[in-house]
Design a protein that fits this description.
The chain is of the alpha/beta class. Among the domains are: 188 residues, Rossmann fold; 161 residues, no CATH class. The strands form 3 sheets. Strands 2-1-4-5-6-7 form a 6-stranded antiparallel β-sheet, with helices on one face. It has a 6-stranded mixed β-sheet with strand order 8-12-13-3-14-15, sandwiched between helices. It has a 3-stranded antiparallel β-sheet with strand order 9-10-11. Helix 7 crosses helix 9. The longest helix is centred in the N-terminal third of the chain and has 51 residues. The chain is elongated, with a radius of gyration of 49 Å. The two termini are 20 Å apart.
């Protein structure tokens, strides 16, 4: 709950310190005195966006600080709070240069974090909140409870899977259409490459053979010249004679023995190589047709590499990829069926969870209808008929919160048909309907601080007493701050704060004071008699205060 509020340089508020109590607190004062400014200041603590227009004239910044107690454990999931902290200090600073700062217990936080934090603390309800009833998108949050909210993350996870599978299937479906046109071209390419029977080994061998045959004349001439050299000079015979002579000398000097053995090795090696040359020379054969065949084959390699703009290694890989793609296309029906099966299974699982959520909601909706009717009766709308309908669109649509589309139908007058809420209710009826709804929602969310800003606008008489009693009922389970112009509401409060404005040194200032019983009687009397306390209004004010004090016990 909010126990104190400190506001500095905020519009016409110079420096204001307010201490709040538990139970119900009313804020009264003339129009324009600054009551709603206090609510606006609290709104900034609840994460509302700030405007430099709110900074007091001639000041560089505005500061709003609130101290809250009764912290919830969930708050530590939003920001890092010390588990031993028993207070929450929220501070907003708005600077004239457009910058703003949010701090929680001296820790800087984002506006989104502050919004999430405030959702666990309280709720501000103004007379303009009734516009929220015009939008059916807001209706589900009034119906859903913790059980439904607990199922939604799992539903959303399944919905995400379904949409992914659906996307995969649609891509495959489109691809199957495109691939049917591409298949013929791929088959032409694979036929051309397979017929070519390309290989890295063959190309190397062909290049080697082509090089040999292209230079056959030079090879043949050189080999024959080598043979002639050995034949004419009788080199081997001379070498053999030299070996015989060295052998005779070696018996006298072992050094010649070593030379003789080495030369003998040379002799036999040379003899072998000359024999090999003679053998190869006999196999020398030039076939022009073979050279033409080899060159034609190498030309095919060059042509295909040029055509596909790839080297041979990449071309062979490309051939493999084409083959795989053709196989994929020709077996595409199996892939398509598999993708559709996954999509259908995910659809059914998502639908199953959505239906579970929907059934729970329909049960909760019946309970909500009964609760709202009860609260509307308390607020002098006894002839009201109200229904929550779940519409069934022609095409099922999965939304992030399920498949349900709901509308609130109401008739405030007997004999009139049920119509959408926004089309049949007057301002006062909408305010009471929203109050009835907020009574239920606030109890469901277990909020600590509920703020009503002129929720009683435009009502009077018995209805005013009903609204006062309803707000007082809410205050039994939560702290309630209420800006009001109704004496019936002011009289039922546990704490009465009065806001005034006056001139000081040529500047307008807002002041706030807590009224004691005597001042409170006077203020309520003025509210009854249009600003001037009369004997009759004073007596009526005393009667209002006394009746509530007796009803609730002397306070």
């Amino acid at each position: 709950m909010l126990i104190s509020l400190n506001v500095k340089n905020f519009a016409i508020i110079d420096n204001m310190q307010i201490e709040f109590q538990d139970g119900m607190t009313c804020l009264t004062g003339e129009t324009g005195a600054g009551k709603s400014l206090i609510i606006d200041a609290i709104g900034l603590l609840f994460g509302k966006r700030a405007s430099t227009d709110l900074i007091r004239f001639n000041e560089t910044k505005a500061t709003i600080e609130g101290v809250f107690t009764k912290l919830k454990p969930e708050m530590t999931e939003i920001i890092e709070l010390n588990p031993d902290d028993d207070v929450l200090i929220i501070k907003r600073e708005i600077y004239a240069n457009g910058k703003s700062l949010c701090k929680v217990n001296n820790q800087t936080v984002t506006l989104n974090q502050l919004n999430d934090l405030a959702a666990l603390i309280g709720d501000i309800h103004t007379q303009y909140d009734t516009q929220g009833l015009f939008n059916p998108k807001n209706y589900l949050k009034f119906i859903d409870n913790s059980e439904v909210l607990g199922l939604i993350p799992s539903y959303q996870e399944n919905l995400k899977k379904y949409r992914e599978f659906q996307n995969d299937y649609q891509k495959l479906l489109k691809r199957s259409i495109d691939d049917s046109q591409r298949l013929e071209f791929l088959k032409y390419q694979i036929k051309e490459l397979e017929q070519a029977q390309l290989s890295l080994e063959e190309e190397g061998q062909l290049q080697q053979q082509a090089n040999y045959l292209s230079n056959f004349e030079q090879i043949s001439t050189n080999i024959n010249d080598v043979k002639e050299i050995f034949s004419e000079q009788q080199l081997l015979d001379h070498l053999y004679e030299a070996l015989s002579l060295l052998k005779k000398v070696s018996q006298f000097d072992e050094r010649y023995d070593i030379i003789q053995k080495k030369m003998e090795e040379i002799y036999y090696n040379l003899s072998d190589q000359i024999g090999e040359i003679n053998k190869l020379s006999k196999s020398l054969d030039f076939d022009p047709a073979e050279l033409d065949r080899i060159n034609e084959r190498l030309g095919l390699y060059s042509e295909l590499k040029r055509k596909y703009k790839k080297n041979l290694t990449d071309l062979l890989l490309f051939q493999k990829q084409i083959s795989e793609e053709i196989n994929l296309i020709e077996n595409f029906d199996d892939l398509l069926l598999e993708a559709k099966t996954k999509m259908d299974e995910a659809y059914q699982e998502t639908l199953k969870q959505a239906n579970i959520i929907s059934v729970l909601r329909q049960g909760l909706a019946k309970t909500l209808v009964a609760q709202i009717i009860t609260n509307l009766n308390d607020l002098q709308l006894r002839n009201t008929s109200f229904e929550i309908i779940f519409s069934n669109p022609k095409t099922l649509v999965f939304n992030q919160d399920g498949i349900d589309n709901v509308d609130f139908l109401v008739s405030f007058n007997p004999g009139e048909p049920l119509k959408p809420l926004s089309k049949v209710a007057s301002g006062g009826e909408l305010s009471r309907f929203m109050l009835a709804l907020k009574t239920i929602v606030c109890d469901k969310l277990a909020l600590q601080t509920i703020i009503f800003d002129e929720i009683d606008h435009g009502v009077s008489g018995a209805i005013a007493f009903s609204i006062a009693n309803k707000i007082k009922t809410i205050a039994k389970n939560a702290q309630v701050l209420c800006v009001t112009h109704l004496p019936q509401v002011a009289a039922i409060a546990d704490q009465h704060l009065h806001i005034t404005k006056h001139l000081e040194d040529g500047r307008t200032l807002t002041k706030i004071s807590q009224l004691d019983n005597e001042d409170r009687t006077l203020e309520i009397a003025k509210m009854i008699s249009n600003g001037i306390a009369t004997t009759a209004s004073l007596n009526l004010a005393k009667e209002l205060l006394c009746s509530h004090q007796i009803k609730n016990g002397s306070r």
